[in-house]
Input
Amino acid sequence: MTEGMALRLKAARVEAGFRSQNAFADAIKKHWQTVSNYENAKVINPSAEVLQKWADITGKTIDYFMEEPIVPDPEPVQPAVHKFPYHPGVEALAQDVDLCRENDVTAQELNSLRRWYMPDPETGEPMILQTRSEALGLLREVLRPKPAPLSVIDATPPGSRQPAGR
Output
């Protein structure tokens, strides 16, 4: 017996309104353990007599129980939703090799610009970078890390410090 057959036997019993194996066993005049063994695929060669009784009580056919394989319907495949909008300005910037060189634009930065997403505060729609200058401006102002402010350090050369207490 296959697992698919066992699943169909149990499903048929439950569909027929038999919530317990005991009640179904009484209906087919078998021991509850027999029902359990069939529903758990522990029976190697299912009896034609038991299958016929099962079919009669549940309204199914023996052929229904013998069908293989039982496969759940696959989940419908949803088309991929492109999370990031298309930015014509980024692609125009990527095509302008000279401008990229002048501004030290890296491939990684171009990819970051391609993945940039900001909803318009009024409409909620994604804002689109339409021009090279918009893309370059965003890169300079937002995406490139700002240099850390310089801290004042003690510029006294080593060895020229006065020992403490003198």
Summary: The radius of gyration is 37 Å. The mean pLDDT is 82.
